[in-house]
């Protein structure tokens, strides 16, 4: 007797077609439910992802620029600004000598060549500007001595042309 659902098989059965010697009869063959090997699932997905990345690299200029930056090894040029340290490793902040506030700071260069950097030091209401010469890979320590306010005061060091600055709040002269 022919099956009514020819061509529609359950996941565990398969209907074999009519062939020579079977004259109008159907044979139902049980098959096991197997998943494809992992690589047969991964390879097409990987291909799609790589294709999408290639398309994005061709179409989107910003993506192309980021891809070029990621593939190249170029160090960024920058300088470090920090309060100077003693040989023991402690930072020298709020130091005084003879009624003056001593501000020691260091600038380490990661620039391509030697440069003169302008800075501004503020102690309370007093301000002083200057320049420091930095060489690639080297640190330069700067000492500025300004009049010390009688009460608590703020110390600020800023490099011109950059957003780097140091700030400290100092207790002032003790009576």
What does the secondary structure layout of this molecule look like, with pairings?
Layout: E1 13-16, E2 27-30, H1 38-59, H2 61-71, E3 78-83, E4 95-97, E5 100-110, E6 115-123, E7 126-134, E8 139-147, E9 153-159, E10 165-170
Antiparallel strand pairs: 1-2, 3-5, 4-5, 5-8, 6-7, 6-9, 9-10
Instruction: Give the class-level CATH name of the largest domain.
Output: Mainly Beta
Number of helices: 2
Number of strands: 10
Annotated CATH homologous superfamily of the largest domain: Immunoglobulins
Strand fraction: 35-45%
From the spread of the alpha carbons, the general shape counts as elongated
- What characterizes the major β-sheet? 4 strands, antiparallel
CATH fold node name of the largest domain: Immunoglobulin-like
The ordered H/E elements are EEHHEEEEEEEE
Uncertain spans = none
For the record, give the distance between the C-alpha atoms at the N and C termini, rounded to a whole number.
Answer: 114 Å
As for the number of domains, it is 3
Helix content: 10-25%
Query: What value does the average pLDDT take?
Result: 82
What class, by secondary structure content?
Answer: alpha+beta
Output the radius of gyration. 37 Å
């Amino acid at each position: 007797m022919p099956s009514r659902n020819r061509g529609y098989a359950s996941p565990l059965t398969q209907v074999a077609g009519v062939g020579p010697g079977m004259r109008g009869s159907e044979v139902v063959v049980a098959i096991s439910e197997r998943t494809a090997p992992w690589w047969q699932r991964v390879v097409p997905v990987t291909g799609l992802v790589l294709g999408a990345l290639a398309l994005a690299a061709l179409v989107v200029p910003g993506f192309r620029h980021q891809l070029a930056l990621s593939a190249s090894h170029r160090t960024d040029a920058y300088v470090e600004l920090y309060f100077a340290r003693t040989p023991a490793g402690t930072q020298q902040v709020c130091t005084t000598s003879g009624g003056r506030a001593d501000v020691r700071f260091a600038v380490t260069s990661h620039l391509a060549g030697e440069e003169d950097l302008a800075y501004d030091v503020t102690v309370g209401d007093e301000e002083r500007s200057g320049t420091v010469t930095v060489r690639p890979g080297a640190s330069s320590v700067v000492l500025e001595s300004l009049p010390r306010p009688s009460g608590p005061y703020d110390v600020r060091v800023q490099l011109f042309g950059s957003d780097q600055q140091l700030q400290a709040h100092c207790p002032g002269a003790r009576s």
